[in-house]
Amino acid sequence: MDDAGSFTEVVDDLKSLATNSRDPRSVRVGNVISALTDVIQGGVTPGKVYASTVTTLEGTLHQDHGDVNIMLDSLTTQTALLKILGVVVPHVSAATLGATIGLTSRVLRGVVSSSLSILVNDSQGSLLDTNDGLGALTTLLCETCHTVGEVLRNLTPSTVQEAAVRQLLTGTVLGLLQDTRQKVQNAAKNSLSGLLLMNSPRCHPAILKATTKYVNMHIDNYLKNPSNQNENQNMIELTGFLGTSLVSLNFTAIGGRLMTILVDLLNEESLSSPSRPVFVANSHGSTLKILTINSILSTILSLLEADDEVGKKNIEKINSFAARVLASLVQARPTLSFREGAADVDLLESGRTIYGQILISSSQRILNSTTSTIEIGAKLLPMALQHLLGLSRPVEEDSENSIAETLFLEVSQLLRVQMRTLLRDHPKLHQNCSRDCLSVLKSVIDSPFDKTYTPVLDCLALLLQQMKMEEEEVVKCIHSLIKLRCDDTTGEALQRQIDGALISLIQGIGLEQFWKIIDFPKLCKTSLKGTPNQYSWVIDVMKISGLIVSDNRLHLSFFQDEVLPLAREFDAIFVKGSTGTTICRSQVINLWNLFPVFCRMPADLDVALPKLAPIILKAMNDQRYPEFVTVICTGLDILASGVFDRKDELKELIDGEEGSHVRMEAEVMGQVSLKLLPSLFKLVDSLHDINSGSAKNPEDDNEMDTPNESIVEKDASGVLAVTRSIASIARVAPTAQIQRLFTKVVQRMLESSQSGDKKTVEKMCSLLALSQALVISECLDDSGISLLYRSLKPIIRTDETPSRIQKRAYKVMSEICKRYHSFVAEPERLKEVMELLSSTSATSQVSARFMRLKCLTFVVDGFEGSAVDIRQGITSSLIGETLLCLKDYNAKTRDAGFKLLLSMNKLHGSSADFIRMVAAAVGSKTSHMRSAAVTALSKLVFVLSSEDIDVHNMLPALLKTVLILSEDPSREVTKSMVVFVRVSVSAASSEQLEPLLSDILNGLLKYHRGKDRFRKKIKIIIKKLVKLFGFDALMPFVPPSDSRLLTHMRKLSEREARRKNTRRNQRRDDTRDYEAMADSDEEDSDDGRTLATGMTRMSRMSRISSGKTLKRGHMETASFAQSTKSGRTKSTTMRIKSDADGNVTDVKDLKTVRFSESPSDESDFEEDMEFDSSGKLVVHDMGELDSTNKKGDGDTIFSFKSKRSTTSERSALTRDTRDPTKKKKKAPNNGLGSAYKAKKAGGDTKKKGQKFEPYAYMQLDGRNYSKKNRRQAVEQMSSVVHRGNKRLKRS
């Protein structure tokens, strides 16, 4: 029982329902609780409210129910009282409940009996039950079940006798379990299930006994007459209740009885045909019987999967029961019962799925139990798998089967958990069980393979992982999988599934063991006679499996002793040049692709790497296989990174075998690096095309820096892989060696910088790549970094440096700024670095500007934790340059500049102060800087306004500041200003914008006409303002000269609204047009196609005529705007464009109209207006209509052709009937410059008396470039100037 304070809050909450709720039932509850508390004398306690509620409820049961209104009011009050009683009971003491249980039981049973009597005796009871008003019988009975549950939940066995509890439960909840109303039945089930789940000792024993008696009674009734339909339905409803409650009852006895019924149903045979037994699926009334089977199976499955508190408490009993269930089900014949017959397919497939899930769940429980039942589970598991294979087949051949996927996904979980536990604890038992399971599962891969069993492949792989690889059956099974994969009839989907199964198998047993089991060299040799690359997919599978590090560590010695000899054999065949040499070469490359796989944590690195290093170096320099460079360097990168990471993790270990082994690996790797690094350094040089310019004209050497002769690396991916491997190996190499190599690199770089030939460009690129790799390794000291920095300064500073060299120099500089920030952050050097990077903005090549900004970004990011004055000093020194970068014509540079701007904002600390700093640049002298400042403000507002409230509050002030630039004559500034206004209008609130409407509109409307107009952008802004404030609010602020713009926009908006309304009405009218619906064939489900003939000619004609009928019906109801919108979809002529931009076509002007010159077969009477290529409106003659449209609904023939049009048609027909083999004369070309064109040759000619050269002068006319004639002028110029890619033309 709770304290008085909490109960007072409960009462107050109930009273508040009268005023705070809109639900009539809740309002009645509030009124009733107020009335109850008003009559209580003294303090309001739970006991007094409880007693008053029960007494009042009893009084409502004896009222006269002759009048329906009185009855409805009585039921409403009872519902409210039951609601109050259910809330109050948890606060009443157990002693009080026990003392008054007799009265409470009598009242609650009276509510139920009174409600049921209304249904039986009162002819108007159905009205009360179906009407969703206050006091409905369904609501009353549901509330009664809930209240009874609360009362019984708060009773204790010591305070009340079993007879009183049994009487209350039987008269209320148990009786309503069979109610015909689903809501009442569910409420009773939920109430009783909640009581049972409390379990002993909280649950009263009388509840358990009464429920058990009720369940057994219904089971007995079913067993007396199992073929009765009502008893089957009662059994289905009973099992639905037991699905959540069986675990709380005596499930051993009740579950045993249910299993007896289930087995009898599964083995039921019809006696009508002794020669041919008919099982459930084919017997009379099979649907109801299948439903009964499924409901019993669902109940058993719920018991086996119970993992709540009650289930964990009875885990041993459930495991013992699971053994009985499994033994019974493996002896049944489920596939004969759940087969295609009278029952619905979905029911049969659901039953198969549940049956299989019970088999799996039972096996899992048995294998997890004690030793006595584990042996039974191990023996029954193969039989269960055999049943699962049978259940996985679809009921219908053409149906999509998801049973196998569902069941064998759970089988894979069983193999991963329970079978591995069995292998660990009982290896002998596991060996016998796995052998029997393999004999069952391997049958699915026998030829021909059934795609139904595709999910079984993963389970087969998991089972093979746990078996001994020496067994003959295991080897045969793996070879069968490979054979199935190589079969020509195997589809791509099945191939992917087999690949996945083999990948899982390799990860479980290890790549080396898989190699030995399948004897991969032997497979490859046997395939040389037929298809040399037949097993190349196996290498891909092994490579993918190596991406995940498993417990099976590989050995570099295996790669050297097993993989490389096979690669040498294929290489020998490739050298001989026999048939299939290309395939042999690809096989060599595929085998070397396994090298990175063996480099992932090898177990014998300290022993095998020194032996393997010479072979690696030789392979990297093999000119026949340039692909080896990327593969080998990737493996070395993985190898060195792994050694460094393990050494870093175990650097604190002083003693121990693991620590000593890691240190040994690091030492060996350092010794091998003495040979690897010099070779890798030379390899970087060889990957750059040193002699790329030797084949070119020597006279062009001085044009080395021109963009057209930029030198490209032979293999950029190879250079990247080599530099990464150098960076990784350098971290584990001896420091002395790194310093020695670094000194040589810097020395060679200084020597090469003095020369300017093309070879030097490639040499410098390779040296800078090596320098970048050493910087990335972070193995250089401050003196080395200082030397490198001094070497980079002259390369970065001058604009005479080739673009490739300068870009790579900036890359090295960015790595220094990122990884050696402490070196850059020294006060003197920071000043020097900032001056260097800032002063090179004008001398940087286009391709290097992005990297320069990247360097600045790394510098800025490194000062994030510094003092405020230092951070603000850096941002203030870079702000001007960063703003100008936002206006760069290179997109990557602009993006890098914006990233730098955001980093500076983050470093500055306050976004508002930073934006003020940027806004100060609006007053710059140059228009370029003012435009850059406004662009920066636009981007910052776009990103920060939704995240920072201070920035959002600054928007009005920023708008006022930027709108000052509306008087700026620069188009660049104006464009930036318009974009900023657009961004600010979208980000600001209406309250912020309303005081600025006059300034915004006056500033924008200056640029909607004339040469500097930004009409489209300005109209978008005005539309946004109209959406916020409306036309009437904006009109007073618009200058009189521009008011027509808003007026026109309003007309367009209203016109669009009318069109939408018309279309909406049109759709509604079309659905009500009987003639159109009667004549239409569009609702034919097969589009005129039949099973026998397909699309017939008559069906096509029917579809055409029906389309015209519907169209004619639309014309009678549709508006002109709608008819012009729905035009021919296949027309290639220009349609009338939307006049949303204010341009209205004058169709009365004959200059913009032309008549059609040729009839169109698809033209129709009501088709769209069209434009030709010159922009003139096309008006079709009536005679151009389709022949099917020449006659209307009557016999009248429409013919409005003139003699002229008829004559032109006749002449056109004559032209079409001429001999097609005769050559047609080309029409004379009257285009621009045609007077100079040669008739018998290409190009232009110079005639006698010609004053000007044909290519030197072309007379221009300003009238040709007006908006009206611009398109025609462009088409005339097409005969002289051809359009093309500007970038390509420039190059």
Automatic annotation (TrEMBL):
Q: What Pfam families does the database record attribute to this sequence?
A: RRP12_HEAT
Give me the stretches of Basic and acidic residues compositional bias: 1184-1194, 1241-1251
* Gene Ontology CC annotations of this record: nucleus
- Give residue spans, biased composition: Polar residues: 1119-1135
* Family under the similarity heading: Belongs to the RRP12 family.
What is the top-level taxon of the source organism? Eukaryota
User: Biased-composition ranges for Acidic residues?
Assistant: 1076-1086, 1159-1171
Which InterPro entries does the record match to this protein? ARM-like, ARM-type_fold, HEAT_RRP12, RRP12
Instruction: Name it.
Output: RRP12 HEAT domain-containing protein
Query: Where does the RRP12 HEAT domain lie?
Result: 420-684
Compositionally biased intervals (Low complexity):
1095-1106
Check the record and name the Gene3D superfamilies matching this protein.
Leucine-rich Repeat Variant
